[in-house]
Structure formats: structure tokens, C-alpha cells
Amino acid sequence: MASGNGCECFDWIFRRRIEEAPVPARQAPSPVARPRAFSDNPVLYAPLVMAVGRVRLNVPVKPLQEKTFSMEICGMAGVPLLKVDLREERLEISLHSVGTLLAIVTSAKQVMGLLEEEPWVLGTLVKEADGERHALRDESGRMLLEITSQEGEHKMTCDSEGETLERGTAVWRAPTDRVPLEHFEVTAQPNVDGVLLVACFLAVTIF
């Protein structure tokens, strides 16, 4: 487990990346072309992808039971990094500090990124026949990510040249001194977009 100083350093790196990401005047950032892969992984917001080390984000449980909400998603040191709003059956994920919209998730489980303020569809989550898995598929039907859900845990994987690779998890956690609420700890592997994993986790949990 990361030490307290390690958590604070990680959150500081995140905040610096947010502050240093280019934001053209009167436009949302354009970190990715439509669509773009980052180390064979789909990406919604490249500045928050970590090449070394895992991204860990804490999603509070209580708001997920509401029809509308606005909540903060914090890093391991408790620093708010993202903001999520649910209204009119649509999720919006933004940077906490500057309010820049990063992703939209619709009630049809479409996951969309933003390019110069214009939404583009990365993929749609489709429930598999067994009822325990969702596949994120692009417009051509290619599977980008698979989410396997069991009580208290969601595993996110993808296939690469016949090999199943772990991309991340979302695991229920009891309150701790650092995170005093029930929460899901979303962990993204190196070179995996934590914003995308949060978007997919929220999509299968809420919709």
C-alpha cells in the first residue's frame, strides 16, 4: 500500500497535469484525436494517463443511489480531482479544479469524449448474455474493454493478440481514516485512462 507521502505526491502530479494541460481560449482541451489509442488503450483524456504507476480514484457509494447528484472523485490523498454530475439521465465528468468537461455517458451507455467542445462517441457498453459482463464496443463493433461485475467488484480487461490483459478494477471499500465514506476504489493500470474506467464503471452501475 502506498504511504501517505506517496499518495500526496501522486495527487500533486495529477493536479500539475491538470493545470499544465493546454486549454485553448473558449475551448475544451483537445488531448486526443477521434478516436485515438494510447499504448493500445482507448483514451478520453491523455494528460491524466500515467505511464508509470497505477491511477487510484475514490468514488463515493452514497450518491450512486440517487436519481440526480453532483459528487467529487478524489485521489488517494483525499484531493478532489474529478467532478461528476448526473442530471436528466446523463453523466458528465469534469476536471474538478477548472470545470473542463472530459466525458459524457448517456442512459444508453454511450461513452463520449470531447474534441473542441464537440462530443464524439468512443463506444457503447452492451450487456453480454450472461448478465455479468459488459463490452465497450466502438462503432465498428470492435471490443475496446470488457467489464465483469460481481458483488462489490468490477474487473476491466481487454484482449490483445489472444491474451487477456487487466486494465483496471473498481472495488468496494469500507470507510478509512483517509477516505471516511463507503467508496469504490477505481484502479487503472499504467498507460490506462482512469477517466475512461470511471466512466465505464459509472455507466454499468447507474444505467
Give a quick summary of the entry.
By secondary structure, this protein is mainly β.
| Beta-strand fraction estimate | 35-45%
- Multimeric status of the protein: single chain
User: What count of helical segments does DSSP give?
Assistant: 2
Topology pattern, helix = H, strand = E: HEEEEEEEEEEEEEEH
How many strands appear in the DSSP assignment?
14
Q: What radius of gyration results from the CA coordinates? A: 16 Å
Low-confidence stretches: 23-39
Helix content: 10-25%
| Morphology call | globular
Strand order across the largest sheet: 3-14-13-12-11-10-9-8-7-6-5-4
**Gap from first CA to last CA:** 32 Å
For the residues shown, what is the average pLDDT?
Answer: 85
- Count of all domains: 1
User: Which structural category do the helix and sheet elements fall into?
Assistant: mainly beta
Largest sheet: 12 strands, antiparallel
Describe the 3D structure:
- By secondary structure, the chain is mostly beta strands.
- It has one domain (4-206).
- The protein is built from 2 helices and 14 strands.
- The strands form 2 sheets. Strands 3-14-13-12-11-10-9-8-7-6-5-4 form a 12-stranded antiparallel beta sheet.
- It is globular, with a radius of gyration of 16 Å.
- The termini are far apart.
